Amino acid sequence: MTPREMKIAAARAALQQVKSGMTLGLGTGSTAEEFVRLVGEALAARALRDIRCTCTSNKTEQQARSLGIPIHALAEIAPLDLAVDGADEIDGKLRLIKGRGGALLREKIVEQASRRFIVIADDSKLVERLGVGVLPVEVTPFARELLQRRFAAMDLAPVLRMQDGAPRVTDEGHQLLDVRIPPNRDIADVVAQIRELAGVVETGFFPREASEAIIAAASGIRTMRR
Ligand code: 5RP
Which of 98, 135, 139, 181 yields a CA-CA distance of 20 to 30 A from 169? Predict the structure, then answer.
């Protein structure tokens, strides 16, 4: 299976959990995009009806609207029956790192407002220890330079996320500092320290949000449950 086929396989398995009449949170990223496409197809084929959805990013909302998926403000339909989204890293305790697509704040808000959150991913996202790659931290522009210095002093090697030669601006008008968790430090402790600093809006560490993960591998699909 190609990486895209694995994403589609995980998305298809998650679609089986969607029933007519549900309220749904739609994630962001290339795997979530496949899920949104399948939801659109199921609605068009009338295999699903009366779904009400909310989106974790403007990009997903654009895709969902183009497919005729009914979109609502989160507060109108929360609590949600189900959210489905990708992840950048998943550990054995179903803790996640998210946000390398830049949508971590809305993702966390939507996923905390969901009774059930299914992560969809291919097996390249499974890690022994979170922090193989960067941990995205969403910050207010006013505090960004100071936070960048603070994070550097904490040995977190912060890098400002850029796009087209300028700092990447999130859907909520913030900026992103990608930090590295030192191998000898526990991610939960580092995140607790980060969150104490004014100007930090949210981090991409999702310790409790996911209720299950559908992981696609060349050998087939497997489900992890909390
Ligand atoms: C976006 C995210 C994505 O869910 C994460 O980056 C995974 O993306 P992909 O499915 O493209 O690998 O957290 O903020």
Answer: 181
Domains 3-128+207-225 and 135-204 share a fold: no
Q: Which atom of ligand 1 is nearest to the CA of 99?
A: 14
CATH fold of 3-128+207-225: Rossmann fold (3.40.50)
Domain residue ranges of the chain, discontinuous segments joined by +:
3-128+207-225, 135-204
Residue 189 has a pLDDT of: 98
Identify whether the C-beta of residue 144 lies closer than 8 Å to the C-beta of residue 160: yes
The residue whose C-alpha atom lies closest to atom 4 belonging to ligand 1 is 86
What number of other Cβ atoms are within 10 A of residue 180's Cβ?
18
User: Per CATH, is 135-204 categorized as 3.30.70.260?
Assistant: yes
Question: What are the pocket residues of ligand 1 if the criterion is a CB atom closer than 6 Å to any ligand atom?
Answer: 27-32, 85-88, 98-104, 107
pLDDT value of residue 66? 98
